Amino acid sequence: MRKITYHDLNIWRTARDLAETCRLVAGATASGPADDLPDKIRDIASSLPAKIAEAYASGDEAFAACLIETRANLLLLEELIAKSVDLGQTEKGAAETLSLLARSELSIVNALMEAIDRKHLLE
Question: Rounded to whole angstroms, how far apart are CA atoms 120 and 116?
Answer without folding.
Answer: 6
